[in-house]
């Protein structure tokens, strides 16, 4: 198979490219090369999607499969389709669970209502505003489905974890538990959480391209209670840690944020967003999305934490030791 990854220098695209190389495919990555290097064995073709005629370096090339990682710009997607659709047999677009209008209700499937699309140009980087991000993704999905119809594969991941994760969310917990002592955790027995390991997602995207699977899927694993997941992470590491639960009201009063970002307890969701982590996962499972054991994901996340500077470092998500100590006091 001859495949093109629009991306390939960062988390999801890089994992797809690496899986393609491992499978023995010819892998071309179209990106600037600013986010990182492509995996060994893949070829980087310089593509700047904000530049003039970005796909000229790929002129005359044909692909069995294209994987588009466009984050937050409808023109990126429509321009790529215009330039490449006639030379590709199968097209995968990595969308997001942020396309859904109802973020609160649990158990929704891919036929749930979507936010209104936005076709006006978005910035290249994912917006801080999830509503804008979701609206651009809806517009992008429509363009892919219009252009490729029964050869389009659109996947909507929620939380993606694993190697090269730059969000600092999942990795906070293995790093925190490995450090030991008293660890502040959200007291949310009813909160579901679901995730997909980027390596499992990449394997599935490759399988879908190979087998010409089409349609729209939520790329998520089974939902489970967050407290159970956190206990299991600590268990995998055999961590000498005491989990100290505090309820949402107390956490909010202490100025601690849910989900991500500074001064947060990552993966804790407010009630208004529980639906984002409790989507139906069985369609994707039937279409071949398989999930590795949690222990593998946890050990990979901890290894990355050590690579990035150890168990205490400047992070973009989570609590500093001082913030946690103050909140526990
Ligand atoms: N990470 C998550 O948890 C998550 C969750 C749900 C959905 N998603 C979706 O999954 C997809 C991949 O996510 P990710 O986290 O792997 O994305 P990412 O880290 O933002 O990488 C995006 C890719 O876009 C390329 N890029 C950026 N600016 C470019 C430009 N001007 N021209 C050409 N290429 C450019 C980057 O390469 P260069 O900088 O080298 O050019 C990089 O390879 C995205 O569509 C995202 O919305 C991610």
From TrEMBL:
One GO cellular component, as annotated = cytoplasm
According to the entry, every stretch annotated as the NAD-dependent epimerase/dehydratase domain falls at: 3-211
Concerning InterPro entries, the annotation shows:
Epimerase_deHydtase, NAD(P)-bd_dom_sf, NAD(P)-dependent_oxidoreduct
Pfam family membership, one: Epimerase
MF terms from GO for this chain are:
aldehyde dehydrogenase (NAD+) activity
Q: Which PANTHER family match?
A: NAD(P)-BINDING DOMAIN-CONTAINING PROTEIN-RELATED, PROTEIN YEEZ
The protein in question is named: Nucleoside-diphosphate-sugar epimerase
